[in-house]
Amino acid sequence: MRHSMSGVLPDHLDIHLIRILYMLLSEKSVSRVALKLNQPQPSISASLRKLRELTGDPLLVRGARGMVPTQHGESLLKPAKRILVETERLFVRKVPFVAQDEGRTFHIAAPDYLASQFLPNVVSSLRRESPKSKLVIHGLGPEIDYIRLLSDGDLDLVIANWGEPPAHLHLSKLFEDTIACFMHSECAYAKRTGPDDMTVEDYLSLPHVAPAQTLAGYNGVIEGYLAKQNMKRNVTVQSAFFGLIPYMLTQTDLVLTTGEQFLRFYEKTLPLKRFTVPVKFPKMRYYQLWHDRVHQSNEHKWLRDLISAAAKSLT
Q1: Domains of the chain, CATH where assigned
Q2: 8 A C-beta contact, residue 177 and residue 283
Q3: pLDDT per residue over 251-304, tens digit each?
Q4: Count of CB atoms situated within 10 Å of the CB of 226
Q5: Helices within the chain (DSSP H only)
Q6: How are beta strands 255-259 and 2-4 bridged, if at all?
Q7: Which 3 state secondary structure label does DSSP give 176?
C-alpha cells in the first residue's frame, strides 16, 4: 500500500477493477456483469470480494427484488463513471474514419413516428457509404433509460422530439414537421366536414388515437401543448405501435394528430382525409442527441453528418 494526499491507495488498482465496480453498481447483478464482460461469474465474484475489501463496505446487498447498492456503493457510482470517461479520453486515437474501408457497429434509438422515409434514408446512406458497417436501431419507451445508455456507450445517439432534452447532452436539429390531423375519408364526420372546417370543439370531442408514452413522465408534444392551453382531447385509443395507427383509421372514426411527413406515404395508399388542426400547435422539432464521451469521435461525427444529410433530403 502507498499513501497519497487523499488517503491510502493500493499499489495495483487497475482500471478494469473500476469498470467492474461501475458495472456492478449499475447492473446490480454479478451474473449480468459477467455476461456483458464475457467473463466467468466466479471471476466477477472474486472482483466484488476485492472491492469490498478495498472499500470496507459490502457495496451490494440483497433487497426485496435482488441485489441493491449500499448507501456507500451509490456514492461511488458517479466517481467511478467519471474515472472511466476521463481514462478513455487519455487513450482515444485521433485517426480518420474511412467509411468505405472500415466497419463499425452503430447503435441509435428512435421513436417509430418519425417521417416514414427518414430511417430508410439513413439505412440506405449507411449501406452505400460504409458497406462494412452495421446499424442497430433500438426503440424508445418509458422503461428505456436512454441517458444512461448514452453515457455508458450502449447507444451512440438518440433521435427524438421531446420538448426539453437534457441540457448536458449535445444536440443538433434535424428537421421540423407541421402538425395536421387525419381521419378515414369515408367516416361520417369526414364526409360532412371540409378540410379547413374542423372547429376546436370538434377537435377536442372527437375520438382520438395517440401513441403510447415513449419517455417516463412525458406525455408528448400534443398533450403537453394542450395542457398549457387548459385543453384536453378525447383520447380513446393509445398504441405502442405507431406504424399500425394509419391502418386503424381506415376501420374507425378515430382522429390521428401527427406530423404531415409521417403520413405522406400513407395518404397515397390509404383512404385518409387530412384536416387543418384548429389548435395552433407549434411545429414538431426533431433532433439528434449524443453524449460528450463521443463528441470528438471521428466515426461518430461521420454518423451524425450522415443522419443530418438524411434529414435534409426530406425537405
Answers
A1: 2-90 (1.10.10.10), 105-174+286-312 (3.40.190.10), 179-282 (3.40.190.10)
A2: yes
A3: 999 999 998 888 888 988 999 999 999 999 999 899 999 999 899 889 999 999
A4: 19
A5: 15-27, 30-37, 41-55, 71-90, 118-129, 146-152, 188-192, 200-205, 221-228, 245-249, 260-269, 298-312
A6: unpaired
A7: strand
In angstroms, the CA 123 to CA 163 distance is 26
CA distance 191 to 296: 55
| pLDDT of 188 | 97
pTM for the whole thing? 0.69
Write down the residue that cell numbers 472482483 correspond to: 47
Please report the pLDDT score of residue 11 as a whole number: 61
Integer Cα distance of 153 and 269 in angstroms: 40
Low-confidence ranges of the chain (pLDDT < 70): 1-13, 92-94, 115, 215-219, 315
- What pLDDT is recorded for position 4? 42
Helices 298-312 + 118-129 axis angle, to 10 = 130
Sign of CA dihedral 108, 179, 212, 230: positive
Distance between CA 140 and CA 143 in Å, rounded? 8
